[in-house]
Every structure is written in structure tokens, then in C-alpha cells.
Amino acid sequence: MHDGASARIDPILLAAAELFDRLGYEKVRLRDVAARSHVSKNTLYRRYPHKAALLGGLVETFAREFALHLTALTDRQHDPGVRRMCVDVCGGGAG
User: Fold this and answer.
1) Has residue 93 got a pLDDT over 50?
2) For the chain, what is the domain count?
3) Alpha-carbon Rg of the chain, whole angstroms?
């Protein structure tokens, strides 16, 4: 994520990401996420009624952040370093 991105991401999702990473998806309980993100269980359940909804929120958030990074790269496609990276990663040019 780019600088300042975590300030825009839902603290509940940040807490879930940390716990999923540390404990694994199966071991994380919603009450753990609520405690880690400093929200009540009621608040958590209103926004994310089950663990799969949390995971879906994470996927959407990180996909959106990735898209922002890709946009920034394509805006800089004339940069030789970015062009080389695109060739290395994608197997083709950036434009």
C-alpha cells in the first residue's frame, strides 16, 4: 500500500488482516477482531456479520489499493525503470 493508505483503510479490516496473518483465518474469532480494532462486537457484526465478510472486505480493499498502484505505474510508463519492471513482471511492455 502507498504512504498514508492505512489511514484510509477501515481499522476493523486492518485488525483482521493482522490477525489472519498471525493466527491464520481458521483461528481468528470475530471477538478477537473487535478487541484488536477497539470496537464493540455489535459494531463489528453490523459492518461485517461473519468472518467471510471480513475477508471479502480485505480482498476489495487490497484490490482497490493495487489498482491505484497500477494506475500510478501506467502514468509513469515512460520511465525506463517502470518499463523494465513491467516487462519482467508481465512479460510485456507497459504501453
Assistant:
1) no
2) 1
3) 17
